[in-house]
């Protein structure tokens, strides 16, 4: 089957600085049974061995959209998978009506604000044969607002290529790591409150904060970091790091913090931390419990005191810390493997394509 994966405007599918959505797509595209091609904009610093068609982002949105339509038509796919951006995807799908498609959402769909908003979304959703979400939680939330799509909505959890995130739970530094956007929804504020409480009590431990998009949220993030002035010599702040640098920090750290305040669609960073052999402290919001199962220390609420309590329990109990790290690593190596998720997605794609063709024949 020939599969066209269409990325949203602004996405370049860069091999060295991918965003989380591109990382998921890259991991799932290692499928030798299908001819897969990614359609994205120019501007990547490097490419890998996944086939890519680059689209010139110049001109207005209609011109860019037409370039994408023509490129996908030239590929002549059996199935088109649009990722994330419903507005642009619906317009392109409308020009490719004869080809079965899906909208692959990597986040929660915002609840409609009013009746017109709901009507507009229902109208736009008619452009798609099906919908794929990265967690059962995100899928259920979508169907709670748009139940008419129940028969054509699927969930495929994010995968992890554990071999790319090596880490031995028995060979870890006394380091607490956080990796995520420097934004309020990622829980940086309560995390800094917790570190300000914990680090003075455990002088052998240090923390590393890997903060992305610091250019957008820098002023707010710096105010949170300033709470750690008393232990500044034991806190390293890394901004907008390449993927290899993140991997190195995860490999070394004993504990990874995932204190998201918002409803995480799934939580790829949790998978990465588990795979690297970290014990994970998680808020459990949204799809995070699907990502970690019973193998994370969950907090009852995302506050500084709750995170500090969870950290203290691990720092005071080496056996518990090691058990959590080892069980989490084993869990993702079985449940969230690339092979398992790719096979699951392959079945979903084949079902979508078969169902769409049956509807076409019935007309």
List strands and helices in order, with pairings:
Elements: E1 2-6, H1 20-28, E2 35-41, E3 52-55, H2 61-75, E4 79-83, H3 86-94, E5 101-105, H4 115-125, E6 131-133, H5 136-145, E7 153-155, E8 173-181, H6 188-198, E9 206-212, H7 214-225, E10 235-239, H8 243-252, E11 253-258, H9 268-275, E12 279-282, H10 288-292, E13 297-298, H11 304-315, H12 318-335, H13 338-362
Parallel strand pairs: 1-2, 1-4, 2-3, 4-5, 5-6, 6-7, 8-9, 8-11, 9-10, 11-12, 12-13
Helix pairs in contact: 6-11, 9-12
Q: Care to describe what's here?
A:
The two termini are 23 Å apart. The strands form 2 sheets. The protein has a 7-stranded parallel β-sheet, sandwiched between helices. Strands 10-9-8-11-12-13 form a 6-stranded parallel β-sheet, with helices on both faces. Helices cover 43% and strands 18% of the residues. Helix 6 links the parallel strand 8 and strand 9. The chain has 2 domains: 2-159 and 338-362, 3-Layer(aba) Sandwich (Rossmann fold); 162-335, Glycogen Phosphorylase B (Rossmann fold). Helix 6 crosses helix 11 and helix 9 packs across helix 12 (318-335). The chain is an alpha/beta fold and 363 residues long.
């Amino acid at each position: 089957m020939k599969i066209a994966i269409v990325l949203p405007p602004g996405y370049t599918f860069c091999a060295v600085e991918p965003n989380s959505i591109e990382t998921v797509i890259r991991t799932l595209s290692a499928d030798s049974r299908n001819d897969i091609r990614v359609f994205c904009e120019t501007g990547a610093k490097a490419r890998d061995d996944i086939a890519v068609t680059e689209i010139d982002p110049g001109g207005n949105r209609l011109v860019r959209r037409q370039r994408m339509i023509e490129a996908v038509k030239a590929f002549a796919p059996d199935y088109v998978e649009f990722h994330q951006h419903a507005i642009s995807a619906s317009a392109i799908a409308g020009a490719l009506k004869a080809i079965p498609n899906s909208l692959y959402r990597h986040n929660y769909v915002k609840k409609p604000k009013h009746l017109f908003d709901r009507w507009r979304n229902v109208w736009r959703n008619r452009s798609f044969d099906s919908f794929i979400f990265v967690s059962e939680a995100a899928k259920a939330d979508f169907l709670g607002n748009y139940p008419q799509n129940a028969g054509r909505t699927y969930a495929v959890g994010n995968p992890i290529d554990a071999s790319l995130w090596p880490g031995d739970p028995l060979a870890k530094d006394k380091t607490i790591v956080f990796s995520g956007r420097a934004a309020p929804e990622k829980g940086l504020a309560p995390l800094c409150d917790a570190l300000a409480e914990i680090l003075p009590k455990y002088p052998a431990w240090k923390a590393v904060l890997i903060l992305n998009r610091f250019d957008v949220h820098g002023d707010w993030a710096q105010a949170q970091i300033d709470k750690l002035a008393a232990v500044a010599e034991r806190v390293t702040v890394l901004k907008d790091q390449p993927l290899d640098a993140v991997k190195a920090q995860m490999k070394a750290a004993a504990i990874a913090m995932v204190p998201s305040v918002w409803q995480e669609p799934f939580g790829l960073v949790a998978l990465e931390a588990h795979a690297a052999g970290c014990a994970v402290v998680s808020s459990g919001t949204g799809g995070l419990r699907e990502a970690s199962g019973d193998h994370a220390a969950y907090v009852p609420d995302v506050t500084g005191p709750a995170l500090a309590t969870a950290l203290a329990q691990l720092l005071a109990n080496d056996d518990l810390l090691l058990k959590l790290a080892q069980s989490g690593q084993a869990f993702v190596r079985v449940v969230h493997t690339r092979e398992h998720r790719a096979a699951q997605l392959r079945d979903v794609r084949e079902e979508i394509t078969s169902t769409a063709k049956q509807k076409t024949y019935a007309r």
